[in-house]
Each structure stands twice: as structure tokens, then as C-alpha cells.
Amino acid sequence: MDWFFKFPHMDDDSLRNLKKAIDEGFRGFTRAYGDAIEGLFYPLQQFLIHAERFMLKTPWPIITAIILAIAFAATRSLKIVAGCLVTLLLIGYFDMWDDTMRTISMIFVCTVMSIAIGLPIGILMSRSDRVQRTISPILDVMQTMPSFVYLIPVVMLLGIGKVPGLIAVVIYAIPPMIRLTDLGIRLVDRDVLEAADAFGADGRQKLFKVQLPLALPTIMAGINQTIMMALAMVVIASMIGVQGLGQPVLKAIANQYFTLGIFNGLAIVGIAIMFDRVSQAYGKRLQKHREVVHG
Predict the structure, then answer these.
(1) CB under 8 Å to 62, separation ≥6 — which residues?
(2) Rounded distance, CA 109 to CA 193, Å?
(3) Cα–Cα distances in Å, from 34 out to 1, 149, 162?
(4) pTM for the complete prediction?
(5) Residue 173 contacts residue 142 (beta carbons within 8 Å)
């Protein structure tokens, strides 16, 4: 009756040999193609380095003015702009400016990559039910896989550094971008598409002049969620050398520095609220514009 109380499983030796074979196979792949894969990501590394250098070397009043200008252009809300200003001033006053700029540069590059990769995949999913059925389970796995697991293959392939952390963050944060792009395009009213067909629009014109503009509020919601998930991954990515607000939090955990962890955690929360409020307000503005234009 042992089988009734203990679930039957593979023989221990067979299971050990299977795991060993998979590990050795991946290590062999890493030795054979690791340098080539690292070379492919060199432009991405340079992009991240230049973005971080810009954020760190530019005087803080200019960076603050740029962020506030972007916030006002997106929201047209002085209240949100004032909130962003207070958040940035508090971050700087408590000596977290440099780490915050590193984190913002990382989130910026991750967001750009997520849009560049996720938008075409979402468009492709919206145009083919077969592609959607194929990609959706992959996205399910990406969204439910524990975030620490993403660090293992990228570290084995690329080692410790900024690029492996960036890749892990993008893999973790990109699913909402893909899903909401697909959803937004599929929710476009069929009557509008029929009207576009009646006016002689081809597939490319319908996509870029009808579907994407009407789906933009939903796509902005995807960008918002991608940014939030990327920020959530910042602390975990600090374990493999990603500099920013995550490293002081990791140091605080290791050494039981309560105040250090709380301050840097609150800085991450402040950045998250800034991004969230600005992107949500911009999405609402796009929604209102669509309602006015299209009734």
C-alpha cells in the first residue's frame, strides 16, 4: 500500500541521470555558442551604457526638468507633475539619486525592448488565431514561472552583468505588452474595419491608420503593466550585477539594515507610482480623444 500514501515517481538514479544530462547539454551549448550569443547582445549593452551615462552625467536639474516635461506632455496635469517633482526631490535629498537614475535607465531600455519585441508579436497574434493559440501557452509559462528561474539560463550563457539582468527583466515583463496589443487590436469595432474596407484601405493602411490608433489606449495599458513588472524585477536582477535601487535593498536584506531597505524600497515605490500615474493618465487622454473623434 506504499503507492497509496507515496506518489509513484521515477527511479532516483534515472531521475538523477536525466537532470545531469540536461545540465550537461545546456553547459555544452553554453561553451559552444556563449561567445556568439554575447556578441549578438553587444549593441544592447552599448544602448544601456549610453542611457545610464546620460542619466548620471546630466546635471540633476536638467534631468528633473526633462522628466517633469514628459509628465506634463503626457498628462496635462499639474497635480501629477507636482507629485513627480516632490518624489524626485525626496529621492535626491535622501542620497538615492544615482541609484534611481540607474534604475530609470534600466526600465527605459527594458520598456523600449519590450515594445520593439512585444508589439510585432501582439500584432501577429491578433491577425492569426493559430499564432495566438501557439503563443498564449508560452506567455502563460512566462508569467507564472518564478522570477528567480529566469536568472539561471542567462547567467549560464552570459555571466554576471547588466545585459543578463536586462534580458531576465524583459522576459519577465514582456507578456502584458504582447497580450494587450493582441487584445486591443481584436477589440477594434468590426464596423470601423468594414468602413475602412469600403474606402479601399489595404491591410497595411488598416493596421497603421485604423487598428493601432484605436487600440492605443489598450496598448498603453500593456506598456504600463510592463513597466510595473520590470520595476518588480529590479531587486531580483540586482542579484546578478544590475546596479540601481535593487542592490541597496539586497544589501539591507543580507546585513539586516532596516532603514536602508525601507528607504530604497520606498524610492522604487515612488518611481513606480510616477510611471503608473503618467502612463494611466496618458491612456485616459487617448481614450477620451478616441471617444470624441469616433463618437
Answers:
(1) none
(2) 34
(3) 49, 19, 16
(4) 0.85
(5) no
